[in-house]
Amino acid sequence: MNLLKTILLLGAAFLAVFWEAAFSGLRRALGGQIDLLAPLMVYAGLCAGLPTIALLAAWSGLCLDSLSATPLGISVVPLFLVGLAVYGSRELVLRDQAFAQALLGLAAGAAVPVLTLILLLTTGHRPLLGWGTLWQVAITGVAGALLTPPCFILFDGLHNWLAHARAAETSFRPDREIRRGRG
Amino acid sequence: MLKRPSYIIVGLIVLLTLMVLNLPSHTKARLKLGIGNLFLPLLGLAGSSQQLAGAALDGVVPPRRELLRQNEALRRENQGLRFKAMEGDTLERENARLRQLLGWQTRQPHKVKLASVVLRDPSNWWRSLQIDLGNRDGMSVNLPVLSPQGALVGRISSVSLTRSQVVLLGDPSCHVAAEVEDPSGDNGVIGASGPLDSGFVELGRLSGNADLKPGQLVRTSGLGGIFPKDLLIGQVVDTQPIEYGFGTVARVKLAANLSALEEVWVLVQQ
To answer: Rounded distance, CA A167 to CA A156, Å?
Structure first.
């Protein structure tokens, strides 16, 4: 497991949850709050190991539920399922392509609220539902599509900046050294 | 697609979720509180940055003429309010005297505490917010919460040491017994609203022959024991018959703007 990447992702998830709860300008303008955790899960699904995905889902889900009226633990499962789905198909995805990242962000952004609502309804809770929910899911989907590519740029940049630089390979090979001299 | 360790991790996550969901409610509430408290430093940081921004804006002083005009307007408003307060005092004394003569129970006065809204529910399917008053400030569950203008906003649903969660009108868990200001005094219950229209709620459980008109005020009826009587909720926008005309449901425009709340009053019983 790449520890630095994991720490960066967990820190970003913490800040993302706080931003969603503390700043509601976009919620007022768009009619629903955007979800910043879905792009993080897509990044983790494509670039990190399964333990990191599990840790990120558990941490961000618990943080989100602690500031919400959602019962504690409900948000963990949808986030983890999205991360797992991306992780399972990472070999088939051109992860360096912004278009692929945006499409995955769109799907993840829409899937997380839908799965959470299904879980809430299955566990006997009564969330606010109506035709407006479709609009809110669309908003989170589009926000996921728009935010996922910058998420890759940001985390790859941070990782390159903070991690040790990869040692450059030299052309020197000891087995090909021509020994010169007498004898 | 997935290897064996993957299944172990999936199992662990499912186990963790099931464990958390099945915890006793008080343990779950404590855990929620503990995790929520991790955000306290960020709340302090956000508060101080707002103060800094305010201090920076203080440097931009409006012209003297404008200040004098505002001062004069405020002085007049202050005089008017003083007169109204004096009138109110007289009416209150008179009311108490009449109640005593009739043998009615005197009304318990309410104390209000001002609170700042610190966080809003990050999910789109609940309508709740958090305020900066908690257990140590005398907050308890089910205390009514009002807007700065005095209109009902919701009630406190859970309390921690330094913060409280308020469920707002329109949330599925916030029901209020209400009464319409019409000659027959129709009673109903304020229930949930749609996910987008935070300015409107539904007034249900009205009788089929309820004769409501747009513009009529809706206030708390005092039934149910949580909200005191006569708190303003909003006004009727339109009505619609339901259940083949045996019932009526009315759409009510809330008097408080729930999406723009910065500060609220909490009504504390003395």
So the answer is: 18
The shortest C-alpha distance from B179 to chain A (Å) reads 24
CB contact under 8 A, A72 and B31: yes
Confidence (pTM): 0.81
**CB contact (8 A) between residue B121 and residue A18:** no
* Closest residue in A to B36 (Cα–Cα): A66
Confidence of residue B57 (pLDDT cuts 50, 70, 90): low
Q: Which of B2-6, B159-163, B193-197, B256-260 shows the lowest per-residue confidence on average (mean pLDDT)?
A: B2-6
B52 belongs to a structural domain: no
Which residue range is the domain that position A109 belongs to?
3-15+27-165
Query: What ipTM did this prediction achieve?
Result: 0.82
* Residues 6 or more apart whose Cβ sits within 8 Å of residue B119: A21, A22, A67, B39, B43, B129, B130
Specify the number of domains making up chain B: 3
If asked whether residues B25 and B80 sit together in one domain, one would say no
Within-domain flag for A60 = yes
Q: What is the pLDDT of residue B156?
A: 94
User: What is the Cα–Cα distance from B126 to B171, expressed in whole angstroms?
Assistant: 6
Asked if B95 and B192 sit in the same domain, the reply is: no
Same domain, B254 and B133: yes
Which residues in chain B touch residue A77, judged by CB atoms under 8 angstroms apart?
13-14, 17
Q: Identify the domain containing residue B183 by its residue range.
A: 109-270
pLDDT in tens, A119-161: 999 989 889 998 999 999 999 999 999 999 999 999 888 888 8
Residue B194 in domain: yes
Cβ-based neighbour number of residue A132 at 10 Å:
17
CB contact under 8 A, B21 and A50: no
pLDDT tens per residue, range B195-236? 887 789 999 888 877 788 889 999 998 888 889 888 999 999
Q: Examine residue B47 and state whether it is found in any structural domain, yes or no.
A: no
Tell me if B13 and A22 make a contact (CB, 8 A cut-off).
Answer: no
For residue A168, pLDDT beyond 80: no
Which amino acid, B245?
G
Indicate if B113 and B102 belong to the same structural domain. Answer: no
Of B33, B122, B173, the CB nearest to A17: B122
Q: What string of DSSP letters covers A60-74?
A: HHHHHHHTSSSPTTT
Question: What whole-number distance in Å separates Cα of residue A86 and Cα of residue A52?
Answer: 13
CATH of the domain at A32: 1.10.1760
Q: Final residue of a domain: which of B48, B76, B107?
A: B107
Q: What pLDDT, in 10s, does the model give residues A12-46?
A: 999 999 999 988 888 888 888 999 999 999 999 99
Tokens of B74: 């405020």
Nearest chain B alpha carbon to A65: B32
Partner-chain contact B195 A132, CB within 8 Å: yes
Query: Are residues B251 and B197 in contact, defined by beta-carbon separation less than 8 angstroms?
Result: no
Q: Is residue B216 part of a domain?
A: yes
